[in-house]
Every structure is written in C-alpha cells, then in structure tokens.
Amino acid sequence: MKSLQKHSLLMSIICLGISTVIAVMAGLDFYSFRHYQEIIKPGSGVTETFQLSQFNKNLTGTFGDTTVYVMKGKKEGGSLLVLGGTHPNEPSGHMAAITLIESGQIDAGTVYVIPRTNNSAFTHNDSQEASIHFYHFTTASGVRTFVYGSRATNPLDQWPDPDVYIHKTSGQTLSGSETRNLNRAYPGVADGNLSEEVAYAITTMVQSLNIDMEVDLHEASPEYPTINATVAHERAMMIASQAILELNFEGIEMSLEPSPVKLHGLTHRELGDYTNTLALLMETGNASQGRLRGRSSEALVLTGKDKFYTWAAKLGFVYIPYDDSGVSIETRVGRHLQGIIEFTKAFTDQEGKAITISGIPTYEDLQSSDLGKWLN
Amino acid sequence: MITLIYRAIALLIFVFTGIELFKTDKLMDKINACMVMVPLALRILMIK
C-alpha cells in the first residue's frame, strides 16, 4: 500500500492515459457513425431532388434535413409519397424506398420518395440493444453499405426527454421517450423540437404539393399484433381494401387495420386528417428489433433467422408465419414493393388518375433473387 | 441554452472527478474516477 501511495501520481497518470485511449476509441466510433454518408445511387427514373427543409426553414443545416427524390412520369397523373426510414431500425422500409429510387420508372404520375425520413435517427443506435451499425448488399457496382439506426431521433439533436410526452395538437400523453419518435409527432410544429419540425415539413410538403396518396413503410417485432398489415386512414379504406385483396390473391398474407381515431401523431392518422392525402402505413416482420431475439447480427437483419423466434413461434407467441427459414429482407422488401404496386393500381382504378410504376422488383422477383441485384 | 448549462455541469463534474483521481490514494477509486470520466468527456464534446 505504501508503495502505491508513493507511486500515486504515476498510477493516476496511467489510469488517465487508459481512459483517454478508451474515450478516443469510443469517440471516433460514435463520431464516424454519426457522420457516415450513406450512398444512394438514383436510377434514371429520378428526375430531380430537393431538401425537405424547403418546407420548414428551421431544418436547414440540421441533422433533421433530408433529401426528397422526385420521380416524374412522362404522362400526367396522380401523386404518391413513399416514406422509408421513419424508424431506421426497421431496414426493409428504408431499403424498399432505396430500391424504388434506384430501379423504378414512372410511366404516369409523380412519385416522391424519402428514404431517410428521420435522418437524425440514422446517426445513432438505440442504447442497450447491441444493434449493428451497418449491413451490406453485393451489387453490380460492388459491396454497398447501409445504415441500421435507431427508432428515435438522436438525443444529441433533441433533448431532454420530458417525463411525459404531450402531443401538441391533441393533448395526448405518452411515455417521455416517445417525444423523439417521429411517428408520434405528426402533424408537427414549425418551431418545435426536431421531430416535430420534420413532421411539420412533411405535412406541409404533402399539403403544398397536393400529394394524393402516402405510404409509410415500417417493420414490427414478430410478437407485435399489428404485423404483416396495412393501417389505413378511413378515407383510404377503399383503396387499401382493393389492394389487400389483390395481395392475398397473390399469396401475400396481409391484414387491413383501421387507423385508430384516438391514437395521435402517426402518419396514417394525422396526414389523413390534416391533408387531403390518402394515408397508408405498412408493417412487415423484423426479428432483429424483437424482444425475444438472440444475438443481434447482420445475418439476423438480412435473413430474419433466429432460433429463439422459431421456439416462440412453436409456442404460439408470434403473429406471423415463422420457422427455421426466417423472414428474409428480400421477402420483407418484396412485401413493401408489391404493396406499393397494388396501392397505385387501386388508386388508378378508383380515383381516375394514373400512378404507374415499373422496373421495381415484385414480391415474386425477390423470392428468387437477392436484393443487391436490384440496386445500382 | 439548456445544452450549454448541461455541458457546463458535465464539465464541472469532469473537473471534480479529475481532481479526485489525483487526490485519492486508493487504486479502485482512481479506476472508478477514470471510468466516470470517459462518458463525461463524450457528453462534454457532444459526441455521444
């Protein structure tokens, strides 16, 4: 002990040195993830891009600003907004939006796509989830890297969380952490917190551009009841019904859920109430965000295979068909893209304005090929 | 404004923890102080 006291200063310096090394290593990891530039390679179907901050100047220069890809068809028609990455820990929504941007062609109408809807949430992971940072696809141009982020806005961009989150326009109360959930922030507030400002920009964009239909792409844990489902605002029910019948005829199991009237802040409720758009939201099954999963890994994100979910399925604890083969990202992206195809067909039939998308892989295409084949 | 106050508080705790690191003779307390200083440093710099 005397020896330690004698060398106390030296020990302090050694300890400080070790903690500095740890802080630098951790800091570099966090910093590089926050600033990672995910590359999206738009196909010839993209006619222009603009920044979402065009619809809320408060987003300019913040991590909330994001790119909107515009795909304008040769013929006039209806308009569609596709939101991917509202929750960046639900990768099939993000990848479906990117696949649309990179391989889609619009023959009639206009399609707006936001692949990183909550851009700030792509800059960090949920704590204590052991989430991966990146996942990869092999494409014709090489191996490409995509970000697996968090469900919520980065607390570096929006903090502190209140004890209770009060939704501004309805007075609804939710858990404090939901204040950073973009899909509880609609219709948004022009000068609110970052999530509210992003939600406001999207609502204003839908109003200003008079967008006819909106589809928000999500995933859910296999044990969550609203899964392999479409949630529709009451004005979008007829279109959703027709599309879901078609999907079921094609062998894609999909249920239809009415948007709860008293559950506020979600796209399918607030964009339907505050704009003229027909608001829809789709859910697939993602084992990598589930509570029952085993080890978090890139393989789990891409294949959806998890032995604990297989066990849970045998015990009847999950709401999707699930076995040893998992639910691959191709299946999940295929469900989203086929859903978009059927929604646009139903819209064209019922509204008399065409939205025609070609070039994107169908559900069937993605049962026999890797997603990377459809990326640039 | 609230972020500046938060960072100032974090910096204050960081400094006090650093002083404790050099004042204490107990090795475990030194290690504890160093472990506390890592997340504080990342918060002060707004990296995490």
Q: What does this protein structure show overall?
A:
With 376 residues, chain A is α/β, with parallel strands linked by helices. Chain A has two domains: 35 residues; 334 residues, Aminopeptidase, CATH 3.40.630. Helix content of chain A is 33%, strand content 20%. Chain A has ten helices and 13 strands. In chain A, strands 1, 2, 3, 4, 9, 10, 11, 12 and 13 form a nine-stranded mixed beta sheet that branches. Chain A has a two-stranded antiparallel sheet with strand order 5-6. A two-stranded antiparallel ribbon of chain A has the order 7-8. In chain A, helix 3 packs across helix 9 and helix 5 packs across helix 9. The radius of gyration of chain A is 22 Å and the shape is globular. Chain B has 48 residues and is mainly α. Chain B has one domain. Chain B contains two helices and no strands. In chain B, helix 1 runs antiparallel to helix 2. The radius of gyration of chain B is 12 Å and the shape is elongated. The mean pLDDT of chain B is 94. The chains are: A alpha/beta (376), B mainly alpha (48). The interface between A and B is medium-sized, with 21 and 21 residues.
Low-confidence stretches of chain A: none
Molecular shape of chain B: elongated
Rg of chain B, rounded, reads: 12 Å
Order of helices and strands of chain A: HHEEEHEEEEEHEEHEHEHHHEH
Which CATH class of the largest domain in chain A?
A: Alpha Beta
In helices, the fraction of residues of chain B equals over 70%
Distance between the termini of chain A: 65 Å
The total of beta strands of chain B comes to 0
Strands of chain A, total number: 13
Q: Whole-Å distance between the termini of chain B? A: 18 Å
Main β sheet profile of chain A: 9 strands, mixed
The CATH architecture of the largest domain in chain A would be 3-Layer(aba) Sandwich
Return the average pLDDT of chain A rounded to an integer: 96
Largest interface: A-B, 21 and 21 residues
Poorly predicted parts of chain B: none
The multimeric state of the shown protein is heterodimer
Structural class of chain A: alpha/beta
Strand content of chain A: 15-25%
Write down the overall geometry of chain A.
Answer: globular
Overall helicity of chain A: 25-40%
